[in-house]
Here is the input.
Amino acid sequence: MLLNEGRLRHWMEKLRLDAVIATAPENVTYMSGFWALPQWIRRGPQTYVVWPAQQIAEPEIITSTSTLDLIADQSPWVKRVRRYGDFHVVVGGDAADHAVSRQHAALNELPGHLDALAALTSALQEAGLAHANIGLDESGLLPGHKAALSAQLPKVQWTSAAALFRSVRAVKTDEEVERLAKVARIAERSIKAALAAAREGASERDLARAFDIETVMGGGAPVLSCIGFGERSALMNVQPSNRALQPGDVIRFDVGGRYRHYRADIARIATFGEPPPEVRRYHQALLRGVQYACEAIQPGMPTAKLFEEVVAVVRREGIPHYRRDHVGHGIGLDGYDAPTLSAGSTEVFEEGMVLCLETPYYEIGRWGLQVEDMVVVRRGGVERLMATDGDLIEVAR
Amino acid sequence: MLLNEGRLRHWMEKLRLDAVIATAPENVTYMSGFWALPQWIRRGPQTYVVWPAQQIAEPEIITSTSTLDLIADQSPWVKRVRRYGDFHVVVGGDAADHAVSRQHAALNELPGHLDALAALTSALQEAGLAHANIGLDESGLLPGHKAALSAQLPKVQWTSAAALFRSVRAVKTDEEVERLAKVARIAERSIKAALAAAREGASERDLARAFDIETVMGGGAPVLSCIGFGERSALMNVQPSNRALQPGDVIRFDVGGRYRHYRADIARIATFGEPPPEVRRYHQALLRGVQYACEAIQPGMPTAKLFEEVVAVVRREGIPHYRRDHVGHGIGLDGYDAPTLSAGSTEVFEEGMVLCLETPYYEIGRWGLQVEDMVVVRRGGVERLMATDGDLIEVAR
Here is the structure.
């Protein structure tokens, strides 16, 4: 299961919530296992999960009739479904012959509601939650929805649940770690495939194409393919262009796709031919920073403490003027999950967190250098999810 | 330019708006030409465009310091930029040597604001809009943002601008039509590549992989790759599985990627070996529906009228029980732009609209059939953006 149910229950009890409602796609998939295509590729389509405290009622998915096929096909662990809106399908004579078709036909027979909010209102009323304290993740709703919901259910006490979902999702289940390990490896292999296309005159786009194809071949979907050469490697979000590879160029990868909805975000640096001495020295300092983080992180350690220490290591090891806002972040269904490894963070590392540890350095007009690894926090320290180290890669000309 | 400026001005005057503010990624890119990676791949990062009525002030982009590299690299047509938040970069000695680096360094010198809302508030105040009537697209804001903005600018009269942006975006500029034509062709070529992988025992995933790779090769990004065999072709949102191709299977494609941020959405049907007679008959009726739409659409025609006529054609041509909510929709930066071709729509076709015309038919347990073409409405009628017709494709076994 993706959901860390124990952690959810803990937070719901602590905040005395009778139920929580997920509305953002990441939270809906996380709570139910249901991936509703329309809300993932557009903004607007509404799918929710209502998760009552134990013994109040069963968890329930609320989704449009036009997405019931995906429920039938995915068999999410939340079994109760409420549908809204019309979508015309014919039930063929063969529907009973296939489990998914049978389930699709059965879901189609559920009573329909006028729209998403009407379905949500009725779900809360039927679950006896019309006077409850409900944690609502508002971020997937449309403008006006929250006000309409409050008007329909005037006795409900609404609590913002964005921070709750963020906190619950920070500590990964085994299934989540497996997916994250897999997508990290896909990204590593994609970097290797991109570098195989590196030759004098090849463009950033050529390498990005090779990168994305390898990601697709590995079962992933391209998301983040920042690949820059030379002075363009200093553009933090560099989008691949026709810039041609030249001897001595830095090649910066800040990349990662999605695998079964989970994100990768890793960084590696290569040079085309021998690296300039300064690049080698600076890169080594950045690598030492990430290596230090891997050695130092323990459950219970404040993330802000690690931040200070990593910045100090990079400064000591070769970039005395190094400045940075954060040296890493969680990753999961979203590219930036909790925690944030920054000076101002009050979070602590916990067993099961999956982190991107990173020490980027951008020098406009010259180059950007960056090491970023994905790791999982274990009882005894950090386990790297990477097959490669973060060494500077020298591509032969 | 992507923006249909004349249409925007027309609507702003009609609604007596002194300015409009875009917050959703589609509207930000549309208004400015600026594609801010973080807001496109995550929910949360904030980038805005403030567009005052003429003679009040210049349009302005508001974005985080960490995205200024993308502004430098993309040279959006909105030239005024306001940044917020910190992001540490070093300006190297070579920054002046490259136009993009130079521009990046210059943008970095702009005065910084604490956060997105502080930057937006100051932009509106400096433009003399603190007492104005402002159209706001709220959909990209985070929960609480609208209330905070209203508190900061208590004299502003806020008007919801979601419908305005939707209406302006419905009529495409030449540059938009070019991108849409290109992405439609990429989708067609990707279907051809997928079908080249069709052989007995090949899986839906095998075809989807071939599809996505061709999309990447064509310069696109995979988004919608619904490819289903046999009974799975009746799943509206079918996600490719290990289902193996068998003789007589229908193969349904409802697919389309993104090219320079613009979406494709087309559908084609193939059969593996000879199609069952009913598939041939039904498909022909659906094709006639789309062909009729291509012949009938004229600027000024109500979309609801076309909807009724297309459904009648499909019924008459071979599926007497055909029922459908809509027979098409606009497409652009979003997969569902205005207009909607449905019974309840009050929109009319206008020159320059780009449409997906579609007649899907789903019979659970048996098969799904669908024809979907992308077209642009011209003065004299519809111009198809497709290189292929919608004929049933018979793949030799």
